Structure formats: structure tokens, C-alpha cells
Amino acid sequence: MTSAAAPLACVIIDDNEINRFTLERAVQRHDQLTLAASFPDAVEALTYFHAGGKVDVLLLDIEMPHISGLELVKLLPEPKPAVILVTTHSNFAVDAFELRVLDYLVKPVSYARFCQAIARVTEQQPQPAPPTPSVVPPSPPLPTNLSATGTDMFVKTNGKLLRINFAEVLFIEALSTYVVLVTDKHKHVVGGTLKSIEERLPFRHFVRVHRSYIVNLHRVEALEDNMLKLGQYEVPVSRAYQDDLVQRLQAL
Questions:
Q1: Rounded Cα gap, residues 209 and 197, in angstroms
Q2: What is the spatial order of strands in the sheet that 82-87 belongs to?
Q3: SS (H, E, C) 82-110
Q4: For residue 217, pLDDT beyond 70
């Protein structure tokens, strides 16, 4: 019998006592988490981290005195934990993406939304790689008419319609109620869900590899240890998508 995975150690940092207590209750209710520590400010938490305090998941408020949550993420010792930002404002989404945080929750946070964020954490925990099949059946050929408009598609960002050349898009990532289109030089934040943009994509070489990621197969440089290399970025691959992804890559 396979033993259950050990609970993930969770640390909370929030200067608002009520918000901190609410997060503590959510952690205690979740059977995959254990509360390792809870702090009212980032300065006290830094001492804990540098002393080797255990943390797998960090629930972090953004607007705090002395050191903000965004500043703290930059100061965290390596290896950094999975960071989930919790804030009353939604205008930090781009900054959060730049710091590669795992999720971005806007207060008040429902328990269902909290569980969704934790599911993203557990899904990215290391998984043993499945054996590579010795013979991979060929995939059906991809159609040549990928889009009636070539490689371009209009998306709505910052209140305007913007033409995006999807040949330049490395991958698409879900971030809370936003979707981020990532190229070598730009990150375009688009409102909506990953599913909604997936349904609109006319490009067959964009495929889902994770509940939070869609990648451009034409820009994949390598697949190693369940991680895809695309330019300067690495994207995780969920076990459920691995077999199909390997077939698609070998058929390119």
C-alpha cells in the first residue's frame, strides 16, 4: 500500500490579525497542510526563514509595514517555497507574475478558492517520471490550415484589443482571474480563464500540459524531469498530459 504524502508545512504572514486568523483556520481545515508558523510582519518571518525554519507553502500578504510581501519574495533564501500572495487589491498581478509566484488571491478569500490554490501547489510537487515507451505510435498529421488569420489573434488587454503574433508566444499561464501570454520580450495580462482562451485558440500546436499552462510546441527546447524548457522559462508538465505531450513532440 502506498503511504499518504506528508502534509506540506505552511507559513502565514499578514499584519491584519483577522485575516491572519482566517488563513490559519483554512490551513487547519485542509488535510494536505500543516501550520508551521504564523507571523504579523515580514521582518519576524525573515528571521524564521534564515534560521532554517521549514516552509513548503507561504501565504503572504502584500501590503505590510517595513517590508512588503513583494520585497520579501525577493529576499527569501533558496530554495524558495511555493508562494501564494493574498491581498485586497488586484493591481499587483503583473508584479506577482514577474516574481513567479504560484497564485494570487484577492481578499476576502473563499475556502473553495483557497483549496484551488493549494491544488496548484500539490500538483507541482515532484512526481516520479513514467517509463518512456520504447515504441511511440505516430500521431495523426497536424492540419496545415492552423488559422484563417495566419499566426495572429486579437486579445483584450488593458482595456484595448491588441494583435498578438502567437508564433512569438512561448506559453500561456493561468494566474488567478487572469491569463498571461508570455513571449521572449513581453508578458501580456489578459482577463479571463485559461479554458476560455484555450477554446478560442485556432493554433493546433498550442497544447495543454498542466491545469495552469498551455505551451507552444514549436518553441519547446527540451523536456526533462517533467519540466519543459522554453527560452528562459521552465514549465511543469502534469502526469495526465505527459504521454500525449511526448507523442506530439515526437511527431513535430
A1: 15
A2: 33-39, 8-13, 57-61, 82-87, 103-106
A3: EEEEEECCCCCHHHHHHCCCCEEEECCCC
A4: yes
Q: Collect all residues with Cβ–Cβ distance below 8 Å to 51 and sequence separation of at least 6.
A: none
Q: Domains in the chain: how many in total?
A: 2
**pLDDT tens string 109-140:** 888 889 988 988 888 766 555 555 545 454 44
- 209: its cell numbers: 500540459
Residue 153, beta-bridge partner list: 164
Pairing of strands 213-216, 233-236: unpaired
Tell me: the pLDDT tens digits for 190-212? 877 888 888 888 788 899 999 88
Q: What is the CATH number of the domain that holds 41?
A: 3.40.50.2300
The CA distance from 32 to 149, in Å, is 46
pTM for the whole structure: 0.54
Give the relative orientation of helices 17-29 and 111-123 as an angle to the nearest 10 degrees: 60
Three cell numbers written together for 96 = 506577482
